[in-house]
Design brief:
The chain is an alpha/beta fold. The chain contains nine helices and twelve strands. The N terminus is likely disordered.
Amino acid sequence: MFRCGKNMKKSKKLTAAEKIRREKRRRYIKITLISVIVITVIAIGISFKLQYSNNSVSNENRRYKAIIIDGLYDSYPNDELIHYIKDALERKGFTVDMLLGKNVTVDNLQFKLFNLINDYRIIILRVHGGIIKSQNNYVGRVGIFTSEPYDPNKHTDLLYMGFLGMGIPFAEPGKRYFVITPLYVLSSNTRFQGSIIYVSSCYSLSAPDMAEAFIKKGAKVYIGWNNKVDINTADQALKLFIKEFIEENKTLCRVLYEINYKLSTNNYLLDIYPKQYCNITIEDFKDKIWPHSTG
């Protein structure tokens, strides 16, 4: 009995010690859990702050893409203008691609301009242009020239469907080129991302159908000439457009007004379609339109 009682006392002491150890373990676990929770919350907060900061930086320094398509580069070169446009766009934060001269073919335009997802925000075409005269079905009124010599045995399916035509430029009456019709633009699978389209050519906005085709495919504005215009005047206007719209951040309304005041006549006028974006600047596009544009 005595031994049994002694063991009972020892057992009680062990139980008390175990309780103390258990309490210490509970406190340790509790403190550890609280520490883990606090560290996790702090880590999430830091991560969110860094992510927000990175997003802010990326929005501010986002490099949009632009492309210069110069189909006149071989016949009517203007290196000073092309380099000026490229430099001005790059200083404004754009990455600039170029498609020049004989490389402005049907296939290259399909690859660069009319691919599935087109992320060029500024598209400048320095090309020949004209009025379409189709004896078959209506395919549009405005044609954009490529630099690819016309061959009736090439692109036969596109010619048959009215996506392409044959064009004779006013400045080069002895030559024949493939011409892109509004139907070609409409039938393409591309989606422009709120792009600004500037077509420096005769008749590029003499009718709205080419502009409407680009707009329906996701472009935001289309700028072109309402009649025949000489290449020298068109080049001066393009340079002024880049200077005042890109470098000086003037609204499209103001830029077109000043260009027409300085260069246009009663015979030709640089115009915009649609009119609703006339009061937008390049910074408005970068800050308000392009970050939310989905084509």
